[in-house]
Model the fold of this input.
Amino acid sequence: MTTLLSVKNISVTLGNRKILDNVSLDMHAGDLKVLIGPSGAGKSTLLQCINHLITPDEGEIHLEGKKINTQSNAELCHLRQNVGMIFQDFNLFDHLTALDNICLALVKVRKLSKDEAQKRARKELDRVGLSNRAGLYPAQLSGGQKQRVAIARALAMQPKILLLDEPTSALDPELVGEVMNVIQDLAKGGMPMIMATHQMDFVRSLATEVLFMEHGTIIEQDTPKVLLADGAKTRTLDFCSKLNNLKGCEL
Amino acid sequence: MELLDLAFYTERVIPKLNEGLIESLWLIIPASLIGGSFGVLMGVLRVFGTKWIKKIADTFVAVIRGVPLTIQLMILYFGLPYLPFVKIFLTPYQAALIGFIFCTGAYQSEYIRGALLSIKQGQIKAGQALGMTKLQIIWSVIIPQAFRKAIPGCGNEIIYLIKYSSLAYIVTHIELTGEAKILVSRTFRPTEIYLLAGCYYLFLVTLATWILHALERKLYIPGFGKANS
Done:
């Protein structure tokens, strides 16, 4: 199996605190890795290091076997075009309609004509079920709709991998479903993803691997079946049952 | 009654004040356009520039804001010809225009800077994550939003500019206020003439306010404050 992306020995230090400590992982076609862990564990930092929104102090990123030279803007741009990113708080461009949010990078980065960009943007909006919201501004959309536009915006760039940083954490409980449905469809369609999430149903049913992070390192790493098996003595199971106790339901 | 002597207004005052008005507009319009663009540039440099560019721009703004405009105009017009090595001669119009551009630009940069800082940083990350360059993000994401947020403040500065354009007469450029002063010295009727000149400025400011509100409405986007109806 070809390696799509490898993260090699990444460390990030802030002051004298290690935010990420020597983290490595490999992504293959069809992989769906889930990052779980307490806040401050370094999940966000790891995801942002992968497409160099945060520059790691040590370590390398390889895309399709080729090391990314982080000094070269062209290579960084190439990396980011191939690695889509979904943020916790959506980060839509507030002054653009849903459609133009998607078109902007298609025109500026992918150099599509305006017509082509709009055609592709409409297709992506349709995929996330928002074709009737194309002309609305972010302020006129619900949280779930904003996140779906953000997903459409990332998909329109035709990335090879998608990074999702707690995509449903900023949403009202009632809106989580619509976003998770979109992500589930993507997962079933074979889009390789690395996702920080605490949506346990999703983790159990679709994740190919669970990475449990704490204090900037991956402390457990296996399939959800192993880590979340009944009676497993794993930090992951311990953490997830606490999570579910908070929600008042059984694991 | 002398105050109601209509012929005095129509024949002597209004034609002269109209000439002055044209001269004032020749100062106000270019100064607000060039000064506005200059202010945007300075604001962007002060937020996104490298350390040294920021320092230079900050110092420039501090000097312009710290010295009275009257003194600046006098330096430009009366002072520059007596420089030790290069002597610079400016016409009254050039001196006034340059002074106004610097002044309005410095103040505008402060409004722009505030607006730029208020843009949610996540959008910069989103732009980067899509592969956009820093320049593309500043141009296509940050500035369009900051501009909308800065309109009320920048409009305020344009209204100031309309009124401090009256300082041009100090460097002997005869605009609205200059014409009024000359008329007064010829006719000894300050009450009517200054009242009328005041009305001219009031008219200009009202017109500018109206245009600015129209601009705000035209550029209105949901989520960026409510446009005045």
